[in-house]
């Protein structure tokens, strides 16, 4: 059974590919996994079978005779401990408590994930095809050759039917980036090297901002004139960098037209600010947009770059067309990492999505087990108290009284587990803070909601045996005694 469960779990993990989990396709079921599962299963069976075996091997004969002589009704829910609580009830309370912890954790992650998905990334990932083009250093060994290839490819792709825009970039948003420092603003003292102003640098072709849907707040985007060899060096900064360099922004002097220097290539000298672009979440949605600036591809032509193509309709239907344009320029040039921008974007949420998925699955299983446990304990209690129920009915108790009696016991189990579970959740969910986004680990609405959910679930689980208790025939129950 354990092996079958592992295979099913692996199949489910394969389905996690749909969750855009990086590396999910490489997960394999091997001997180590099967061996660990076998050892764990045997150890669990031995551990949980040990205590009942010890109890049966040393029976309390006097107690058995007393219970036999006094009728089954006194057995209540089985042997009770010093506090009058049966071991079965204690196990159910423990199940409920663990389920509460898992459910609260899953609810916090789900709420956090929903809020994360609602964050505006700063660009439009829909209908955007991306692919990586790595130029061989042997054939493209100068900046001029690399810039010329990327520039011509963009022009060819843009001319294709159904293409609304195309651009090259050193990296894609939310993936990887290169950082450098801003060294000086013209007319101001050089930036303190002990506390450098670091910024993400992007080398892009004209049309990048329009293709990705990044708004320009001030100034203009790069044009073909900016991307020619020998053109005056231009730079576009994002709003986060503008606020760091010019604290008065958006008030105060207009940054457009001013000059700054950066440390990525000091030989360039001063760069004129052509415009200010809106922030995008380069480091992921959970993090604030970093300071960032953009330069024309001709200034920093990368050896490997990403092509972004804005399409009308399904982006993947344009793959062959774009491949054809690349082959027409260089038949030996390959492309890789062909994905939609939505897939790239969703992959950055893969770890959070998997954590939420697994914890939610465990919480659901725990909730089901807790329901079964509550049902089993209440059903056993009703069976053991058949004579007691018969006596109560004979003395005039109504069906509603019996129903309240049984459901009261059910509610006591649930409330005990809920109280312990909430205390445990308050302690354990603090370690989840790094996985949460704009959600408190002690969110009152989540705790109250899960507690109420469990009370309702517990009452539902105990309702069937409670109804059975109300239908006990008093005369038949007394004859059993």
Structure description:
By secondary structure, the protein is α+β, with helices and mostly antiparallel strands. The protein folds into three domains: 59 residues; 183 residues, no CATH class; 197 residues, no CATH class. The strands form two sheets. Strands 3-4-9-6-8-7 form a six-stranded mixed β-barrel. Strands 2-10-1-11 form a four-stranded antiparallel beta sheet. Strand 7 and strand 8 form a beta hairpin. The longest helix is centred in the C-terminal third of the chain and has 35 residues. The radius of gyration is 34 Å and the shape is elongated. The protein starts with a helix and ends with a helix. The relative contact order is 0.16.
Number of strands: 11
The proportion of strand residues reads: 5-15%
Summed up, the domain count is 3
SS field, number of helical segments: 14
Mean pLDDT: 83
Rg value: 34 Å
Read across the widest sheet, the strand sequence of neighbours is: 3-4-9-6-8-7
């Amino acid at each position: 059974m354990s092996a079958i469960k592992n295979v099913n779990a692996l199949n489910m993990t394969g389905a996690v590919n749909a969750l855009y989990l990086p590396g999910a396709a490489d997960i394999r079921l091997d001997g180590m996994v099967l061996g660990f599962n076998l050892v764990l299963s045997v150890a669990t069976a031995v551990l949980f079978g040990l205590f009942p075996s010890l109890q049966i091997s040393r029976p309390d004969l006097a107690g058995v005779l007393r219970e036999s002589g006094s009728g089954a009704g006194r057995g209540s829910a089985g042997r009770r401990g010093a506090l009058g609580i049966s071991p079965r009830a204690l196990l159910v309370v423990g199940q409920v408590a663990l389920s509460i912890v898992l459910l609260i954790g899953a609810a916090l992650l789900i709420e956090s994930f929903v809020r994360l998905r609602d964050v505006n990334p700063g660009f439009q990932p829909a209908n955007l095809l991306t692919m990586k083009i790595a130029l061989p250093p042997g054939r493209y060994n100068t900046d001029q050759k690399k810039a010329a290839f990327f520039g011509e490819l963009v022009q060819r792709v843009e001319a294709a039917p159904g293409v609304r825009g195309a651009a090259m970039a050193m990296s894609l948003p939310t993936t990887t980036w290169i950082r450098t420092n801003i060294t000086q603003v013209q007319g101001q003292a050089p930036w303190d090297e002990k506390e450098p102003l670091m910024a993400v640098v992007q080398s892009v072709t004209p049309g990048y901002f329009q293709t990705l849907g990044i708004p320009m707040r001030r100034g203009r985007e790069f044009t073909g004139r900016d991307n020619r060899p020998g053109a005056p060096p231009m730079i576009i900064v994002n709003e986060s960098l503008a606020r760091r360099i010019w604290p008065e922004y958006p008030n105060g002097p207009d940054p457009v037209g001013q000059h700054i220097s950066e440390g990525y290539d000091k030989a360039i000298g001063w760069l004129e600010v052509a415009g200010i672009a809106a922030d995008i979440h380069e480091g992921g949605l959970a993090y604030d947009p970093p300071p960032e600036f953009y330069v024309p591809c001709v200034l920093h032509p990368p050896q490997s770059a990403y092509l972004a193509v804005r399409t009308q309709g399904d982006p993947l239907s344009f793959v062959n067309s774009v491949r054809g344009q690349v082959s027409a320029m260089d038949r030996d040039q390959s492309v890789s990492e062909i994905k939609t921008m939505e897939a790239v974007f969703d992959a950055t949420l893969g770890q959070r999505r998997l954590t939420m998925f697994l914890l939610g699955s465990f919480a659901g299983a725990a909730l089901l087990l807790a329901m079964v446990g509550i049902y089993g304990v209440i059903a056993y209690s009703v069976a053991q108290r058949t004579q007691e129920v018969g006596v109560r009915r004979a003395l005039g108790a109504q069906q509603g009284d019996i129903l309240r009696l049984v459901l009261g016991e059910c509610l006591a189990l649930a409330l005990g587990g809920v109280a312990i579970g909430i205390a445990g959740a308050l302690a354990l969910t603090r370690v989840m803070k790094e996985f949460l986004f704009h959600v408190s680990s002690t969110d009152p609405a989540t705790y109250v909601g899960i507690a109420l959910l469990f009370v309702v679930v517990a009452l539902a689980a105990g309702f069937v045996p409670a109804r059975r208790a109300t239908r006990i025939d008093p005369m038949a129950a007394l004859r059993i005694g």
